[in-house]
Predict the structure of DUF2203 domain-containing protein.
Amino acid sequence: MPHYFTRAEAEALLPAISVELGKIQVHYRQAQGLEKDLEEMQVKSMGNGHHLQGKILHVQESLLEHVQALQQAMEELQTLGCELKDPEIGLIDFLSLRNGEEVYLCWHLGEEHIDYWHTLEAGFAGRQPFEDE
């Protein structure tokens, strides 16, 4: 049976989630940059770029380190019970119940509180503010 968060339960996790999201964003951005560098070097090495092989190996090793750190941070986030929807903006959903219906409490990095919810199908675009309940 899934765990349904109350707003208070979810908000209590925001400090820990923010730490993990910070790690995720750093490693995500680093991995993206290294992937781009690697693609460019691989294209260059197809011509007369055999001298790039050592650098390519180094970039591949760095990329692997960032991917592993990213996976570890995402696993840690998952143990908190929330769902990462977008690592770039730090978008998180918490499964909850609203009037007996499954919904997501929706929050992203930079917001002080969980002020929005949406149906499971609506996603971020369908966020609705909580009326003070």
User: Anything to note?
Assistant: The chain has a mean pLDDT of 91.
